[in-house]
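Async update (no meeting this week)

Hi team, since we skipped the sync, here's where things stand on the single-chain job. The sequence we agreed to prioritize is pasted below, unchanged from the tracker. I ran it this morning and attached the output directly underneath so nobody has to dig for it. Comments welcome in thread, and please keep replies under the output.
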Amino acid sequence: MKITYVYDGTYPSSAADAWQVINTACALSREGAKVRLAFCESEGSPSSAEELLAHYGLEGNIDIMPLPLKSAGLSGGTGRSLIKLTHPAQAVMRAISEDTDLIYSRNIPALVMANLVRRPVVYDTYRPWPSQYRSMAFFFRNLFRSKNMLGAFFHSEHTLNSFANAGIDSEKLRVAHNGYNESFFDAPLSTRQARESLGMDPDAFVIGYTGRLDREKGIDALLDIAEQEPSFQILLVGGGEQAVMDRIERLPNVKFFPWQTPSTLSTYLYACDCLMIPPSSIPLQAGNTVLPMKLFAYFASERIIVAPRAPDTEELLKHDDNSWLLRCDDTSDSIKQLQYLRDNPTLRKRISDKAREQSLEMTWTHRAQFLLTHIDTWMRN
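Output:
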């Protein structure tokens, strides 16, 4: 099967969507699909697929199709919204000329363009669009009536239900949780080994978080904990908005590391006693964070996961089983719960062992196998 994955971003990038796209493309290729990844060309774009995969430490057999924005009449100063409209159309037309079997994309304009030119297309998304905007429910109902719109894969039940409740045929809707790269966790480090390599206190109780350090990700909930309980050491890996970075700099018990290459991130996870999704209601209210991808690496890390009680996270996380769940937006209770976990290492070990066991079926490879099975069924029908 020849698949063109249309992505309206650039490479290389630290963005979560860029990471999700390239892992999906590589995993599909490892399962036998011929995958071409179309993306926006920019300064620093890789000259070959080998260069791109080496940057991320990934294995796959993909082709790349970097599309110069200037050929679409765009320049570096063009608004992001215009790029989102023009690039997918350009990519779909190129894919047709190169005889692709299927368009695969996270980008709505690519879906529309593929339908206009009557090519099979599959959607991949984390956004519960119909719940967020009434007009989107009408739009997607009409889009999914097309026989060319084969189906969609959603990153959570929370998102799938948004589309199902909009009246879209359930046979075209499937949950496909994201995953992690098993090779990144082949040689686990002890907590002491990881901390020695990072120059961290071997005896502190360390709470870790990786990813975007933005308020819409709920990071303030974790920084509130750090501020009110200085005995906790907070390890942060990533980057984000300046106001948050300024606050981090003022907190002496927060150890900050800038963005790391995905293949080295496991060292930072191993340095922690627990790994956190901030206990905040903000991410789901913002509508652009559903079952964050960091969660799957957390599962594989052999460290206890601490997360909010929320509709998306509770799809996979069960309190006192494979994780420890906190009430959202309650800093005082969160601190008490974390103190309890700090004082009960045996409990942490039991829970993290269960999560690690479950992680064996949460890889990108398992996801690709699931995708191809359902794509094949949709195409035959």
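Quick observations from my side:
The chain has a mean pLDDT of 93.
Residues 80-97 form the longest helix (18 residues).
Reply here if anything looks off.
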